[in-house]
Amino acid sequence: MNPAWTWGSAYPAPAKLNLFLHVVGRRADGYHLLQTLFRFVDYGDTLHFAPREDGQVRLLNPLPGVPEESDLTVRAARLLQQAANCTRGADIRLEKRLPMGGGLGGGSSDAATVLLALNHLWQLGLSRERLQALGLTLGADVPVFIFGRTAFAEGVGEALQAVPATPAWYLVLQPPVAVPTVDIFRAPELKRDTPAMAAADWRPGLGGNDLEPVACARFPEVARHLAWLQRFGRARMSGSGACVFAEFPDQAGAEAALAQLPPDMQGWVAPGLDSHPLYGLLP
Ligand SMILES: C[C@](O)(CO)[C@H](O)COP(=O)(O)OP(=O)(O)OC[C@H]1O[C@@H](n2ccc(N)nc2=O)[C@H](O)[C@@H]1O
Ligand SMILES: Nc1ncnc2c1ncn2[C@@H]1O[C@H](COP(=O)(O)OP(=O)(O)OP(=O)(O)O)[C@@H](O)[C@H]1O
Question: pTM of the full predicted structure?
């Protein structure tokens, strides 16, 4: 038990970036087989928890447009109660910073933080593997946040191998659009046959994002933000968009680029993380 994380703590839910994302095939159920590199960055949502003795799970501040019952934080907490036969409850407060439909895994990260934090606070003792499997039922991006390390991912994103991360800073731009993941994967023009690579062959800088041309064609704001960012080198879209990012060797370079951002664009700078801030909650 880690004494540093208590009911009163602020629990981070960091963003992820997909440093590359290839679609290498399709499963019989329609889900796409991917290869991708997940990296966490030091920017994200924050969650607060308080115990409830009546066994209920409540989100005190639901997001506009997302009913409490379908919020991924509430769904994650109820799933955990069920899986562990737990009769304790919790109030959840969500400080949202990550854009919805942003490709930064915001909702997935919130769900993973709920699973990690309440497993700890309710003293349930579920293993990392068990929480990853539970998380996968909520969304393809949830397991990596529980896995907790920079990862080469395959399958729909659930087959994870830790890879070393080089220190880097990122400038992330948030186009003012929400991209529905399902629309991008459904697009007839999506390239679905990029040859698979061996995890050991991946090097920083290798690979593109196969979802990027589809999102750029359908959401001109994504294309416009990507085009602006290209002036600083290789810029990429994360996940299914809308956010785009560029990597810099140090903070000064990333901040200098951010300082040039036109007034009609929004962005932020953050360092890459070596591991999820809650990684140490589990053995
Ligand atoms: C694009 C990524 O963000 C890359 O990290 C993820 O693969 C998306 O993960 P996610 O947002 O958790 O997506 P989910 O909520 O699991 O899926 C949303 C919808 O996208 C489609 N989908 C998703 C993931 C995948 N590998 N193939 C798909 O075809 C499915 O139609 C699914 O119903
Ligand atoms: N706690 C939550 N935070 C954000 N979105 C949520 C949450 N709970 C449910 N949702 C729903 O999930 C949808 C996707 O949100 P999310 O922020 O995970 O998208 P995303 O950043 O595009 O993710 P990805 O990188 O996985 O494509 C939202 O449009 C919203 O309707």
Answer: 0.96
